[in-house]
Q: What sequence folds into this?
C-alpha cells in the first residue's frame, strides 16, 4: 500500500499544489507514495475551493488539521507565496513525529525560522525545506570544483523579489555554504542587484528582474563553472522530498535553511535602504 502524503495549505488552488501530485506520481518513488489528502485554511475567492479542487484532483479533502495530520504518513506544508503563515500551519504537523516538508520560502525571518526548527526538534519530527533550484542538474558541477567556491553570481526572475529571491539565495548557499554576515542592495524593486558578504571575505552577487532566467557562474581558485540555464529542478526536488519521507533524513542542512531565511529578510530590508550594509541576523 502506498504511503499517504497530506497537503496543508493556506488556499489549495495554487501552482505548487496543482502540480506536485503529478510529479509525485511520475517520480521513481511514485509507486510508493501518493498525495492522498488535502486541507486548506480558507478558499481564495477567485479560485476552486477545497471540495472542488479535491474532486478534480481525485484527492480526499480533510475536514481539519487534526484529521489530515492523523491520517497522513507524511506532510507537505505549502503556501509557497506566504511564508508568514508557515509557522502557524506547520505547528500541529511538527508535533506528529511524521516527516514534514515546508515549502519555500521557509520563514519570513531568522526568529521565526529558528522557532520552527526548534519546535520540530522538540517533538523529534523530521523537517525539510528548500527552493527547488538547489536541485538543478547544473548545480551538481559546482560540488566538483577543486577547493571552495570563492565567488558566485546568479540571475533570476519571478513575479516579485521578496517571493522569488529565495531561489538565488538557495543556489548561493548550496554552493558556498553558510557564513553570510551582511547584504547590500542597489536598484528598484523591479530591477535590482545585491551583494552577499561572507564573514571570510568571499562574495556572492544576485541580479533580479521579473523576466530574467535562473543562471549562475561559480569561481573556485583554479576553475570556473559558467551556466546559462537551470533544469529538472522541480523533478529532482520531488525526488529529494520523497527520499526524505522514506529515510527521515533531510538532504538540506537546517542551519542553511535558517540562514537562507535570515538572508532573505535582510535583502527585503535592503530594498528600501539602497547601498546600506544590512546585517544578517544570527
A:
Amino acid at each position: 500500500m502506498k504511503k499517504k502524503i497530506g497537503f496543508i495549505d493556506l488556499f489549495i488552488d495554487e501552482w505548487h499544489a496543482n502540480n506536485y501530485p503529478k510529479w509525485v506520481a511520475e517520480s521513481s518513488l511514485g509507486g510508493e507514495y501518493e498525495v492522498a489528502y488535502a486541507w486548506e485554511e480558507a478558499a481564495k475567492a477567485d479560485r476552486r475551493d477545497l471540495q472542488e479542487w479535491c474532486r478534480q484532483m481525485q484527492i480526499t479533502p480533510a475536514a481539519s488539521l487534526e484529521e489530515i495530520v492523523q491520517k497522513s504518513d507524511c506532510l507537505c506544508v505549502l503556501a509557497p507565496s506566504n511564508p508568514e503563515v508557515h509557522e502557524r500551519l506547520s505547528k500541529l504537523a511538527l508535533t506528529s513525529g511524521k516527516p514534514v516538508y515546508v515549502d519555500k520560502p521557509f520563514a519570513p525571518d531568522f526568529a521565526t525560522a529558528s522557532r520552527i526548527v526548534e519546535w520540530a526538534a522538540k517533538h523529534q519530527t523530521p523537517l525539510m525545506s528548500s527552493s527547488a533550484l538547489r536541485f538543478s542538474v547544473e548545480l551538481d558541477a559546482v560540488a566538483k570544483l577543486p577547493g571552495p567556491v570563492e565567488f558566485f553570481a546568479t540571475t533570476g526572475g519571478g513575479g516579485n523579489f521578496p517571493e522569488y529571491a529565495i531561489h538565488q539565495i538557495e543556489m548561493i548557499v548550496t554552493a558556498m555554504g553558510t557564513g553570510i554576515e551582511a547584504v547590500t542592495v542597489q536598484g528598484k524593486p523591479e530591477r535590482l542587484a545585491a551583494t552577499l558578504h561572507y564573514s571570510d571575505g568571499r562574495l556572492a552577487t544576485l541580479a533580479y528582474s521579473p523576466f530574467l532566467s535562473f543562471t549562475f557562474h561559480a569561481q573556485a581558485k583554479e576553475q570556473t563553472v559558467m551556466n546559462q540555464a537551470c533544469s529538472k529542478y522541480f523533478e529532482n526536488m520531488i525526488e529529494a522530498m520523497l527520499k526524505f519521507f522514506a529515510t527521515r533524513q533531510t538532504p538540506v542542512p537546517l542551519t542553511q535553511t535558517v540562514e537562507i531565511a535570515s538572508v532573505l529578510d535582510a535583502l527585503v530590508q535592503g530594498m528600501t535602504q539602497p547601498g546600506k550594509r544590512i546585517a544578517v541576523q544570527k
In short: The chain is about 35% helix and 25% strand. The chain has a mean pLDDT of 97. Residues 254-270 form the longest helix (17 residues).
